[in-house]
Amino acid sequence: MTKANDAGDGPERTADGHHVVIDGRKWRATDPSIPDTFRQELVDELMAARRAVKASEPDARRRVNDAKTALGERGTPWWEERSGEGFDERIAAAIRTLVRKRSETSICPSDVARTVGGDSWRTLMPDVRRVAAQLADDGQVVVTQKGSAVSIRDARGPVRIVKGPSL
After folding, report:
1. Which of 27, 115, 127, 151 is the 20 to 30 A CA-CA neighbour of 95?
2. What residues pair up with 143 in beta bridges, in sequence order?
């Protein structure tokens, strides 16, 4: 076992860094490749969702699951290959979590790619757009361009993603 950093701050980590140890129990660590600003947004939404669970709000547990999946703490391990159905679920969870957190504004697909992709985020843009299209089909998000709803499959150039009616 090792400490989280040289100063000894934070929870104890396993030697491979994939897990934290809290009260003798191993928990999957947050993906360290998530940029700090996006990580903080995900953590903020996780804390809000946990408060919603305590208040017995509907859909609160799904919000917790989405935030933990987006952080890499659930689902396909973040240290494994970044592709496949499990990784698509992480992309979807990151989209849902970020649009909930920014409910009054919108997110850019690149925000999601940066959150789940680390240094290779640019290569994930087609995957993020594909997953966003599926979420738009389900009404969970709305994709806009210059303020108007568009199909992300047909849109060329920059788009934004906002919370949809069924989220």
Report:
1. 27
2. 161
Q: What's the mean pLDDT in 73-95?
A: 94
Q: Is 118 left (phi over 0), alpha (psi -120 to 50) or beta?
A: left
With 0.85 as the threshold, say if the pTM is over it: yes
| Angle in degrees, 0-180, between the axes of helices 85-101 and 125-137, rounded to the nearest 10 | 70
The Cα–Cα gap between 74 and 67 comes to 9
Count of CB atoms within 10 A of residue 167's CB? Answer: 20
With a CB cutoff of 8 Å and minimum separation 6, the contacts of 116 are 31, 34, 70, 72, 82, 87, 90, 91, 94, 124, 128
Position with higher pLDDT, 64 vs 4: 64
- Provide the 10 A C-beta neighbour count for residue 102: 16
Q: What are the chain's domains?
A: 1-30 (no CATH), 31-163 (1.10.10.10)
pLDDT > 70? residue 1: no
Q: Please name the amino acid found at residue 106.
A: S
